Amino acid sequence: MTVRRVKNYNADTGYVWQYHFEGVRSGPEAASRAGSEYVFIVSRDRKTSCAVPILLRRDALDAWAAAHGRPLSGAEQYAAVKMRLFRAFDEIEDLALAAEALEVTPDNIADLLAPLHLD
Q1: Which residue range(s) make up the domain with 48?
Q2: More exposed terminus of the chain, fewer Cβ within 10 Å: N or C?
Q3: Is 74 within a domain?
Q4: What is the pLDDT of residues 62-112, one digit of tens each?
Q5: What are the tens digits of pLDDT across the range 25-64?
Q6: Apex CA 12: angle with CA 17 and CA 86, to 5°?
Q7: pLDDT grade for 4, boundaries at 50, 70 and 90
Q8: How far apart are CA 85 and CA 73, in angstroms?
Q9: Which residues, other chains included, contact 3 with Cβ-Cβ below 8 Å and sequence gap of 6+?
Q10: Residue 4 burial (CB count, 10 A)
Q11: How far apart, in whole angstroms, are the C-alpha atoms of residue 30 and residue 68?
């Protein structure tokens, strides 16, 4: 049995989310959405939980590398995904009911990573 390190996040919505990283898997193969899917298990009430997949699109990684002259390391890729998760916690009250797919895209990757001052 694998023991997961459960972490907390105090969201702007007022909830204290608990989450842990479950794993990464291959994402869709469609050219516009190809990438890796990172899966987190999240709970806002400590009673129920749900899986929240976040797609790290390959074109987002390519856009960041082109703008910064180097690719993101594995840890930096995970950071981008985790920052997308935190943004979802801050903006969406019930992730289990959220209809939108969570993605790191060419349009949001720079904004997600800006607080980390990567260059």
Answers
A1: 7-116
A2: N
A3: yes
A4: 999 999 999 999 999 999 999 999 999 999 988 887 756 899 999 999 999
A5: 887 666 567 899 999 999 999 899 999 999 999 999 999 9
A6: 55
A7: confident
A8: 19
A9: none
A10: 11
A11: 26
